[in-house]
Amino acid sequence: MNNPAPESKTKHRLPPVAIVLGALFFLGLMGLMLYGVSRSGKPDRDSLPSALINKPAPAFSLPVLHDPSVHVTDKQLRGAPYLLNVWGSWCPTCRDEHPILTRFAETKRVRVIGYNWKDEPSEALRWLEQLGNPYMVVLADQEGRAALDWGIAAAPETFLVDGSGIVRWKYSGAITQQVMDEQLIPALEKVEAAAGGKHGAPDLGAAR
Amino acid sequence: MKAWTGVLLWMCLAFSASAQPAGDPSPLQYRDRAEEVRFHALTAELRCVQCQNQSLADSNAQIAHDLRREVLKLMHEGRSDAQIKQFLVDRYGEFVLYRPQLEASTALLWFGPGLLLLAGAVLLIVHVRRRGRAVPVASNDDASQEEREW
After folding, report:
1. In this structure, are residues A173 and A47 in contact, taking their beta carbons and an 8 Å threshold?
2. pTM of the entire structure?
């Protein structure tokens, strides 16, 4: 270019404000990306916050898996906190969390109730026979209609409901020891503290 | 086309951490054509809770089957679209709406793109004005040549 454009002679310099803003924007994008990357390793990255947290558990009346003539309602379960674990014999992830859930249930710190979701009763019973039954009682929701009221999207999912029937915690996906120690136990401690330190196994016969 | 659908379905299944139960395979029964149109319009505006980048109308996840069935049932009960949406929001959260309500928590979602556009426009205007002020003196060929001749 032997005839340079006149404006190229006058050097364009960005004002410092623009440079700072640009740098901040870039750092912001970097931060967002790092946040995304750090989240992508979590097994519950896709799970949604439950709409039921701090709201009453939905009303239900579901048959007991082991004896369909007996129905359990939400009101019968009130009076003490309980853990509701959604599972199905068709669900491989439920198999993964089964030993951890069993170990927790054996401490009898809180009632652990099974929610057998969209399952064949014979299959579900065989599953429990093979792996062991950690549940105080298993409710059977074969059609999956009541599950919609709970906002259940997949299995396994686990809810913690307090003594007055308010949902306090929910986890989607398999419960690991880490989830147990970092989330469930603290949530349970809060529930127990709010109930005035009422510990120990509640009346297990209430639901039967 | 078919291959792509297969790939997408596979990805959806592969990335959803949890398994799916078997469901009732019978097709939905519409009462009439108008109801079918309304149903499709409504479910296209709702997001599947498991296969999160698909609409309720598109998703093949079992829970989407169940929710479609429930939506149709609610329509048969004579509920309005708004009531059906509220039914789902109460259970599954705001996430199910492709067009969420305007609230403090969703304000950024609603106005964020507009704000970014506005910021871009402001930057552009400032830049153009600045150049407009600087350039005419320098780039006006006649003037510069006159200046040189002088």
Report:
1. yes
2. 0.75
Q: What CA–CA distance (Å, rounded) separates A190 from A182?
A: 13
User: What pLDDT is stored for residue B95 in this prediction?
Assistant: 87
Domain that holds residue A28: 11-40
Beta bridge partners of A117: A141
pLDDT digits (tens, 9 = 90+) for B88-119: 999 999 889 998 888 888 888 889 999 999 99
Residue of A nearest to B141 (CA): A6
**Would you call A10 and B134 a contact, using CB atoms and an 8 Å cutoff?**
yes
Q: Which domain holds residue B128?
A: 105-149
pLDDT at B54 over 80: yes
Q: Is A153 on the interface with B (CB under 8 A)?
A: yes
Shared domain check, B124 and B57? no
Bridge-based pairing of strands A82-87 and A111-117 is parallel
Q: Are residues B94 and B120 in the same domain?
A: no
Higher-confidence position of B4 and A108: A108
**ipTM computed for the complex:** 0.78
Distance CA B30, CA B36 (A): 6
What CA–CA distance (Å, rounded) separates A150 from A58?
6
Q: Which residues of A touch B123 (CB under 8 A)?
A: 18
Check B21 against A155: CB less than 8 A apart. yes
A208 vs B: CB within 8 A: no
Residue A201, pLDDT score: 46
* Contact state of A118 with B52 under an 8 Å Cβ cutoff: no
> Do A30 and A69 sit in the same domain of this protein?
no
Contact B19 A88 (CB under 8 A): yes
Are the beta carbons of A170 and A92 closer than 8 angstroms?
no
B56 and B93 housed in the same domain: yes
Low pLDDT (below 50) residues in chain A: 1-2, 4-9, 200-208
Q: Which of B53, B59, B65, B91 to mutate to test the interface with A (most CBs of A within 10 A)?
A: B91
